[in-house]
Amino acid sequence: MSKSDYLILVGPPNSGKTTLFNWITGYRRQTVNYPGSTVDLSFGLVRKEGCSWKVVDTPGIYSFLSSSPEGEVTQKILKDSIANNELKGIVLVLDATRLKRQLPFFFQLKEAGLPVILALSMYDLQKKESPFDFALLSKELNVPVCPIEGLLGGGVPELLNSAQDQFTKSLKVSPVFSTVWSEKRQENYLKQAKDIVNQALIQKAERKIGRKTHWLDSWLLHPVFGFGFLSLILFVFFSGIFWLAQPLMDFIDNGFSYGVESILQYGQDNLILDFLANGVLTSFGAFLVFVPQVFILFLGIYLLEDSGYLARAVTLVDGPFSYIGLSGRSLFPFLSGFACAIPATLSARSISSKRERWITIFVLPFMTCSARLPVYALLLSFLFYGDSAWKPGLIMSFLYFLSLFLGILAAGILNVFLKSDKKSSFFMELPLYRRPVLSNILSSSWSRTRHFIWKAGPVIFTFALVMWVATHFPRYSDVSPEEQIQKSYAGQFGQVIEPVFEQMGGDWRVGVSLLSAFVAREVFVSVLAVTLKNTQLEEDNSFHSSMVETMKTTKKSDGEPLFSRAGILALLVFFVFSLQCLSTTGIVYKETGSWKFAAVQLVSLNILAYVGAVVIYHLLV
Question: Which long-range contacts (CB under 8 A, 24 or more apart) does 84-87 make?
């Protein structure tokens, strides 16, 4: 960290810490990995006149007893900021509706000698039934206690004023992180917490907070109905990816089509203009047209998390996961895998059992990452072109469920063959169901989507340049566009490898696109767009529509359609099984310390994908 004055937010998972961070910073954040770790931290500036502090949102932990990477990073950032004389103070964020259980964390911080004030989130829920006497609570704890209402940001200015009053001087503290908090001491903390909270309650009414949550959990955590509701929720979610994104996709679609036509009208035979239109714009358009779907994917994940349901989904699967040698903790990497396998692999560090961690990492590529989404969207658009959105949405839901099922099946097989060690424990406190903070969800979703775009953009541009050169050179005069691409470097290479991909219904163009996808899966659409658009003689009004129409009319060398229903289904099967991200392989090696493990994963999954695609194709033709 650079030299600054830091206000560090600490607290349990689902305590409202990130919501408070967003209110303090005005949603202006920078997310980075802490040096030497794989744990994300969010940094921002305090949005208050006359205050130049930086705010740090640390990963959620329940106490300093945690041996997880999150707990280690939280302790390390506190130690480093103190050693550099940068710590202004700590804001401990606790859930007001769970205060008795979470308050022992406060006593740990105080015993360690750390400067801290207390922020009670979700107080808008607590005060409806049993409001606190904050003067008494502050007196008993001997620190400022500030109620926070997360939906509207109530209490945030008062919190910042208290922080400035409490942390005005440079602090000289020597925290005792080495203290061993025994179970007996923890029991004393719990008793002390119950006594203080009971005294501070103004209204000792019958506990009504959580009745709605309890009633919902009786259904959503039911051993039978719970999985039915989970299936329904995911079906609605993935259908919405198609339905909600379509207007934005059409807007982006038409914009890139207009751009291509506008450039080409200045000279179709000009190589530079052709590169800008059919190389750069076509490639970026083939990728960016699916960004609305990626954004809605992240939006749905954050919506489930912010509402409190995501924690229930983790709890729901903990029992079934135990039969395949995993715990509910593996669901976090699995769900992260639906965004990207790289952070999912890194998040598996929180699994203390090496055996469980390796099993989880090995099966993560089965999860349908966001890079597969453009591929699936294109292939399903081909299969259901002109049909209602619920049809591709249903198949998309099936593909997500299939990926999760295959991952679980593979984990079960590995569980039989891998030797067992000490099983890791899993603990999660379920938050109350609450209304999500829309601004927080939108900010986080856009942040992840923007990161996805910036990560994929340079790769797509590079491949656009390579593929355009490969399909336009060597140059031949007086030949059709189709003959030019067949005689080009890409065409010559593709014809060498064509027999391999003919077995799954493709030709050299499909083969080159699949091989390009090993750098990044989403490149498949862009490379395929470059090769197919070069063989297209007529311009259509819609880029996405023209891609599907071109796929429908493209022929193999023998005159048969290149993209048949059997061929499209074979491609879907290939992408379901394959590990086409070499960056993931590098991260897997880094996390496991074994090239053998990474190589076996890479080779076995891709062989499985190819064999599966070939079998499906020959069964359906």
Answer: 84/1, 84/3, 85/170, 86/1, 86/3, 86/4, 86/5, 86/6, 87/6, 87/8, 87/115, 87/171, 87/173
Q: Compute, in degrees rounded to 10, the torsion defined by CA atoms 71, 75, 76, 81.
A: 140
In whole angstroms, how far apart are CA 268 and each of 265, 471, 534? Answer: 7, 16, 12
Distance separating alpha carbons of residues 470 and 448, to the nearest angstrom: 33
Q: Residue 47's pLDDT is what? A: 79
Q: What is the pTM of this model?
A: 0.63
Q: Which residues of 243-254 are buried (b: 16+ CB within 10 A; e: fewer)?
A: bbbeeebbebbb
Q: The tokens of 381 are what?
A: 């658009």
Q: Which helix (H) or strand (E) holds 489?
A: helix 489-502
Query: How many CB atoms are closer than 10 A to CB 560?
Result: 11
Q: Which fold has domain 6-200?
A: Rossmann fold (3.40.50)
| Pairwise CA distance, residues 463 & 472, whole Å | 14
Q: CA 599 → CA 216, 405, 517, distances in Å? A: 45, 23, 18
CB 112 within 8 A of CB 131: no
Give the model's pLDDT for residue 605: 94
Angle between helices 372-383 and 543-553 (to 10 degrees): 60
The pairing of strands 87-95 and 54-57 is unpaired
For 229, other C-beta atoms within 10 Å of its C-beta total 18
pLDDT band at 347 (very low <50, low <70, confident <90, very high): low
Residue ranges of the chain assigned to CATH 3.40.50.300: 6-200
Peptide bond into 59 cis (omega under 30): no
154 and 124 in contact (C-beta within 8 Å)?
Answer: yes
